[in-house]
Write a structure and sequence with these properties.
Structural class: mainly alpha
Distance between the termini: 23 Å
Number of strands: 0
Radius of gyration: 20 Å
Shape: globular
Length: about 375
Amino acid sequence: MGFFLFFFAIMLIAFSSSLIKFENRIQKAFVAIFMFLIMLFFAAMRGTGEGDYFNYLHFAQVIKYWYQVTNPHFPVEIGFRFIAFVINSLDLSRQWVIAIMNILSIVPVIYITGKKSYNPIVSALVFLPFLLQFDMQTSRTATAMGMGLMAFYFNSQRKFFKTILFTILAISFHKSALIIIPMLFIAYIEFSRIFKIISIMFAFVISLRARMFIDLFIKIIQSVGLSSVAAKIQRYTYGEDFAFAMKIIDPRILFALFLFITSLMYFENKDFKKASLEDVSIKAMWISLGLLLVFRQSTAVSFRLSSFYGLLEIIYIPLVIEKIKRFDPLGSFFIKASIGVYIIPYAIFLAMKAPAYDFFFSNPQAFILL
């Protein structure tokens, strides 16, 4: 019932807005903000989820002393530990730990969408699968993604202190955020179409021997002192609960390939200022596909790492629609159609696959841990 109410509200707003002729982008932004606030409400008020939700409440219940915040061997990152410590110090409900992480995840999306998206309503719809996959399930990763998005934005503004700050914040919530660091440098490099195509072909070849590559990758990150990260990748690749390979024809790979092809067809390096967020979003479609292929032996690893870049679809998809709507209406139609054919059905699939939604105050199992 909870997910039904959620989708009914979002789709009603989206459908109603399609009947309105907006005079400017700001009016669309206000509608999108309302959609995002509904998403934030449902994410922050959730009282169900996979094991992570109850693990979060359990850890939040335990972290009451400062030495626990500074303990690097605690099984969650320092960002989470600090929030839990503050909430316990203020004697607040531990649901605030969940809510604060959702705020730190979704508010950056609202901010970036409001400032940079050519169509904020489309951006809100594009964000739906990310919300259901991360904010509704693995809030630490979602928070890291939100902070990573801010790092990309400030890097595009050449505000490097803020870029470093938000990169550190992202990593402080989930070590997988280390994957955003290469983009902070790649953003300032121009790559030809040929180079991108060859690199994707190379990623495809690696994907055929993905386990061999992942084993090598694990050894490399172990050698640089990231043993805990290596252990998690090993667990997600070989653990019985997570060892599921992503097929080459997986819809997520095919959609990433579709977006990558559009980035080759419709954009050139000269179209946008180097390292601008538009330029970064175009490059992100390339890197996201590469990560999906290279790490596809572990669905959990490939999808999580690629999503730090895939999140920039909230900028890229409205951008490409705006760019081609006049000179290639058919291409624009197919990209718009992908929202209804893939993005929204995928979001519904994630909701159906997830545990039934329940508010935290109406779920006795969650209420006990608060």
